[in-house]
Amino acid sequence: MKKVLPLFIFAVAMGFLEAAVVVYLRELYYPHGFHFPITIIRDKIAFVEIGREFSTIVMMAVPAFLVARTAYGRLAAFSLLFGVWDITYYIWLKVAIDWPASLLTWDILFLIPVPWVGPVLAPCIVSVCLIAGALTVIYMEDRGVTFRGRAWEWILAVAGAVVIVVSFTFDFAEVIETGAHGDFKWPLFALGLAMGWVGFVSLARRAWRERGR
């Protein structure tokens, strides 16, 4: 668990960096406050923003690769970084510009490959789940547990992640065309979350039972 603290510090710092960039963007494009319908960024700044988001993922993947030795350990380290980064990003925004007004405030969450939109609460729930899963894997690996995922567990977990992404991107065409959004697909989101947890819990329980064999 010694790797957790430096990963946590790194993620908190990245959360502040992300929030700082968004503060600057909102001063330029939303001087009267960020709200839907949004101002669509269509010039070269949009390409820079997409590149920045991709670079952020790379900047978390590299330390995750370096601090862990196994594929599951690296995935856990990345999940921990991502979860802490995402939550602290919103905390820093609240400190800096008193936004979001509540956890149900809508936000543009991601831009790759299409815009993701939803209430702030939804990505925060995902991040809490990622942190919990990551800490579980790190704790178990530190105690000599070896993870061997079965095909159905991986299929279920990946399918769950896809369903969650669909819940965020369901209205992306409307967002692009009008800058507005529809109602968030909470049932779809909950289904994806449940699928992911079933796959992960099955994997973790079996790995714990088989430890030391």
Description:
The chain has 213 residues and is mainly alpha-helical. It has one domain (4-209). 70% of the residues lie in helices and 4% in strands. It contains seven helices and two strands. A two-stranded antiparallel ribbon has the order 1-2. The longest helix has 27 residues, at 71-97. The mean pLDDT is 91.
Which outline best applies?
globular
- Quickly give the structural class: mainly alpha
Q: What's the main sheet like?
A: 2 strands, antiparallel
- As a whole number of angstroms, the C-alpha radius of gyration is 18 Å
Tell how many strands the DSSP assignment holds: 2
**H/E series:** HHHEEHHHH
Strand fraction: under 5%
Total helices: the number is 7
Q: How many domains, in number, for the residues?
A: 1
Termini distance? 23 Å
Spans with pLDDT under 50 lasting ≥5 residues? none
- Give the proportion of residues in helices: 55-70%
Strand order of the largest sheet: 1-2
Averaging pLDDT over every residue, what do you get?
A: 91
Question: How would you sum up this structure in a few lines?
Answer:
The protein has 7 helices and 2 strands.
Which features would summarize this protein structure in a list?
mainly alpha, single chain, 213 residues, two-stranded antiparallel sheet
Topology:
Blueprint: H1 4-29, H2 44-67, H3 71-97, E1 106-110, E2 116-119, H4 121-142, H5 151-169, H6 172-178, H7 186-209
Antiparallel strand pairs: 1-2
